[in-house]
Amino acid sequence: MKPLSAPGVALPEACPSRPWRPSPMLYGAAAVHVGAIGAMLAYPQSLGWALGSIGATHAAMCAAGLWPRSTWLGPNLLRLPPSAEGCVALTFDDGPNPALTPRVLDLLDQHGASATFFCIGQRAAAHPDLVREIVRRGHAVENHSMFHRLYFSTFGPGRMQRDIAAAQQVLADITGQAPRFFRAPAGLRNPFLEPVLCRLGLQLAAWTRRGFDTRSGNNAARVARRLAGGLAARDILLLHDGNPGLDPAGHPHCTTVLPGLLAAIDRAGLRCVTLRAAVPPA
Hints:
Largest sheet: 6 strands, parallel
Strand content: 5-15%
Radius of gyration: 20 Å
Helix content: 40-55%
CATH topology of the largest domain: TIM Barrel
Number of domains: 2
CATH superfamily of the largest domain: Glycoside hydrolase/deacetylase
């Protein structure tokens, strides 16, 4: 496949592309399309069956894109590799947030924990000193798109690449290091994403478990159970330092839950590491 291009968006250095390999689902979808078209040409009476088959493949691909932990559309990091046995990865989405991110950093410092922050490019550009502080304290900054559009999964390949590459440029300029991982807004995507990530040298990263901590009014204990229940080595845990949900007392779930989660990780004898420290480059 010829690499996709995004006119007017310069790629940061140290961001090598990688070859795109269609997933088995995409090969299967292509085979269904070819077979259906051939059947319609050879047997016009099969029109209904052929169109139904094509529609079913599109529905399956849509479902795969709406399932954040799916690997049907391409590689998706759900757990740390076996080489990271004894470690977990704490990840924070939607920042930087000057009202909350510094508090998260202080809590991480108290436990000597490293974390990965998936930052929105637009917010990073507005708070560059905070992004640099994340890195200064030993954490990693990764790509969470430029604008975090909730309809990101409807983007075509050109718009998708422009959005991701713009965030890549902003984050690389601020930190001096190009992100290696990308997390889609809300984890939703479409078949165009993996070719774009290959072009930009990024790896898709989802999570093992999440606390749904963006839901205001949620019970903090329930958020904690979702994250710490069944906690195991190589887990990737998702919290949010941006767009935080609030408990009934008005406290952000992230800072309410994080101390207990860090204590549970310590009790389990596990160590918090960044994704880039645990996962070799693709």
